[in-house]
Description:
Layout: H1 2-17, E1 46-47, E2 52-55, E3 58-62, E4 79-83, E5 86-89, H2 95-118, H3 137-140, H4 146-154, H5 183-190, E6 212-218, H6 220-226, E7 234-240, H7 247-250, H8 258-263, H9 280-300, E8 311-312, H10 316-324, E9 390-396, H11 401-404, E10 419-423, E11 440-443, E12 451-452, E13 456-458, E14 466-467
Parallel strand pairs: 1-14, 9-12
Antiparallel strand pairs: 2-5, 3-4, 5-13, 6-7, 8-13, 9-10, 10-11
Helix pairs in contact: 2-5
Amino acid sequence: MKRIFLLLLSASVASVSCSGGGSSSVGKPGTKGELIPREKTKSFVAQRPYGMVAIPGGSFIAGMAGESFTNNGETAPLKTVTVAPFFMDEAETTNAEYRVFINYVRDSIARTMLAEAAGEGGDGKGRGQSIGDYAYLAKKEENLTPYQEYLEGAGGRDDGFDASKRLDWKIPLHWSTSKYPDVEYAEVLESMYLPASSRVGSERLIDVSKLKYNYKWGDMQAAIADNERGVNFLRSESIAIYPDTTVWVNDFHFTYNEPLFEQYFWHKAYKDYPVVGVTWDQARAYCNFRSKLKSDYNESLKRRQQRPLEFRLPNEMEWEYAARGGKENADYPWGGPYLMDDRGCYLANFKPKRGSYMEDEVKGTYTYTAPVKKFKKNGFGLFDMAGNVSEWTVSGYNNSAYGFSSTLNPSITAKADNKKSVRGGSWKDVGYMLMNGARDWESKDSARSYIGFRTVQDIPEAAVKVKRVNR
């Protein structure tokens, strides 16, 4: 009898230990003292963010696949590495996209100053007809939730969020002087502009030095080193985010680039051109803003959503893997080895010959930057991974990084290093810098007329597929 019992027990164990996806669990949740998760078993589907493409995970040979003219440690040796899947912007961040960031910061600052001046509010009709309409939401909400009451009594959350100073974004802002609702409103809004003594002519211009984006981020490396996680590792940043438009003059001496200095960032003609004059820190601030934008939207929905993964800059290996577009040992994103197609048209925007930044319109090069998506995309669906503007990566620059980095999802970093890797080559570079394995660097606090960026977002390894977003 004892032997029969043991045989039955072993058969029972075998039937559950090698499950191939049975139809049901041991019982209803909570019955018979069994530990059964109550979460729904529906598979997670990663939603593709607007303007991004899914880069599948895989292995590739990193480094200079073709001939290396410099023969130094920056391009050798070749190394096989594996990269996890991620989403990546299909094109470089444009002026129009970055202006959304600028306008958000501008409006946030204006609304905060208006809310401070409004005090208790209550003297308007709720449509921006008086400065009182711009009071903090806590001043206008009569029935606070228990949680809101608790936060007010406790002085806000531990991470610095103050619920009593939430802005009312439903009230429209008036930027035209003819629509200022009252004198108090005019006094606040006018403080956003350059004083008359600092203006060139009579044009009213926003004082861009006031456009600072404040945010916090977790220092994961410090938390890991101390083997703990908490608010002690939150780092605060206050970044002046307006692009440095003087780069068009400062980067090139004895050159007439003043029209670009005056027009490139704000003129509608350049809305689809890649943003330049942005430092590494400004690019990271943009990533944080994009993450906040999605997170705030999810929180506004009645149905609870999965917390969105953060947007960030790609690391150097992710960038190179994406640039290759799935092609083995390719010199360029389109394969190679030539910079022209069979019709004699250039395949990227770069400096084709010495002293010649543009041959002719037929061959398809531009004097300066080109609108994004003007050249063919690579095998992953990415545009301008070579030429147009070089792109910031999150990685610190080290000329021997390929030798010591991991072969599994490598992230090349250099502690406290001001040098950051930039990849892809630009409109001012010769064809060699467009090669997938070519590397370059720039100081993270520098802004250039030939450096831009694009963002990425992780895809959970457990995601079964990518859900497309209607465009």
